[in-house]
Amino acid sequence: MIKLEHVRKIFTDGTEAVKDLSLEIGEGEFCVFLGPSGCGKTTSMKMINRLIPMTSGKIYIQGVDTMKLNVNELRRGIGYAIQNIGLFPHLTVEQNIATVPMLKNWSRAKQRSRAEELLDLVGMDPGIFIDRYPSELSGGQQQRIGVARSLGADPPILLMDEPFGAIDPITRVNLQDEFLKIQAKIKKTIAFVTHDINEAIKMGDKIVLMKDGELVQYSDPSSLLYTPKNEFVRNFVGADRVLKSLRLHKAKDVMQKPPLLVQIGEAPSRIKERMEKNMLKWAMLVDENEHFLGWITPDDLKESKRIKDIIKPPTVTATLGTPLNEALSMMFNSVIGTLAVLDDKKRLAGVLSFQHMRDVLGQYMDDSKTDTGGIQG
Amino acid sequence: MWIQAWNYLLNHPDKILGWTLQHLYIILVANVAAAIIGILIGIYISGKGREHIAETVIYFASIMMTIPSLALYGILMGILSLLSLPSIGFLPVVIALTLYGLLPIIRNTYAAIREVDPAMIEAGRGMGMSEKQILTKVKLPLAVPIIMAGLRQAVVMNIGIAAIGSYIGAGGLGQPIFRGIANYRTDLILIGAICVSLLSIIVDMIMGRLEWLTTPKGVRIRRNQ
Ligand SMILES: Nc1ncnc2c1ncn2[C@@H]1O[C@H](COP(=O)(O)OP(=O)(O)OP(=O)(O)O)[C@@H](O)[C@H]1O
Ligand SMILES: [Mg+2]
Questions:
Q1: Is the CB of A45 under 6 A from ligand 1?
Q2: What is the complex's ipTM, to 2 decimals?
Q3: Are A39 and A194 in contact (CB under 8 A)?
């Protein structure tokens, strides 16, 4: 747990980089420091491991005043990853990862096995990479080593200053996904700096939004998007905040029960009847094991073929865990603008439609009542 | 003249070898001293907040380089005799060469340490390295090849200057040159000159190899690309 109390930083040139910052990062929480360039994110983070001495205030880690600890001991207990990675070019991957274990005088064998373990964790084959030098790695691999190094001595706390900056968007997304999976396993308390709102929403349990050295809003990502505290937050998160919020929800949270299921043996005329009765332009075809076989529209039923002959396998389907931003994009690709959601046994679990998505998300918005626009189902 | 020099070489290889060894000995002692003192000074002045001291030190080391060697020998002889130390021969020459060798070594040590990527120093500090550990585990290993380059410069330069040391009786390859000048023996001058040049070339090559060997492997790879 990290606790900042009335922390303030005035640099010698008079710049007041951080003004009276108080906040608490809970055990195992992923806290993102977000804000425009120069708002004091890096300064705030570096005061936690005392790379920048604070002018006034107090910072506690697990309840202990950081000023009361030996500064090097404090830092060895906090994982640290920086934007420019800062791998040591004269040391191998193993030596880089084992920097803190080396400082803590672990045995050589233990350092090596720890490096192997961490390479595995970040998805790099120790057999290939452990004895390489940083100059023999791609940018993305270097970033991974940077993350692995911050985990060197298994610290309970991580400080990360734009650890996935300076990297192409695709690799960046991969690293983010991988790191989320890692965090799900290791459950560290993390202070993570970024100026990318999408990264913040994707990664953070909590977001600290700062402006000119002050905390503007400290909340979870969905509150930041749905109930921005003021004009600055609203502008910072952007006019497309609803779209941004989509990734916070999963298909399973929003899907409906399939309104009309039909079996493969049913007569086309009967199906048509049922569609008309329900005022639906489609029905969902399933087999006896509830596996989804495809969509049926009235057009398919015109020629009185047997159902078996008109099955068109679905082009796209979502799973329970598909985030809504991806689901929405799939819906644009699907024939009828609705999307089948399958469970992990590939059985039909539900269905997503524009109308229903709008209804559910509308509940979260503070200003949806005044919004007359929106997606018409 | 060339034939005479050749004959001398064939008849007195022992003498030539003796002068060469003497020469190398002077160089070795002077440059080991210069390396130790120069690197220590370089490390010291590269510390935080010592930019002014650094400027002054490098300024004086540069001025030292502009003093003609004979003049410097003269000055040192004066000082040494005041201290009632041996004022001719080995000692003043070694001291002079040490002083000449300082500038490239101090300058390179200072620059090399200063140029280490700040991101790396921050990473080291952020992971809990003490300032001493940052110096020995990060800065110095990265600075070594550049320091070696400075040392190489110093050694090669001193091989030439050391020849003049024979004038005040320090021996070495300057001896045949000065004897040749005094006795109108061009062959001796030639032998001395050629040996000094050869020695410079060979030592330069060896030092170049050493510079390569002391470059950390991970940095070498980057240079190759
Ligand atoms: N050493 C320093 N001396 C003086 N002012 C500084 C120093 N370091 C940072 N500042 C100033 O403090 C303010 C906050 O800087 P900080 O590095 O924390 O910003 P940031 O939010 O991390 O920005 P970015 O997203 O660009 O990294 C800026 O106005 C910056 O110019
Ligand atoms: Mg920053």
A1: no
A2: 0.84
A3: no
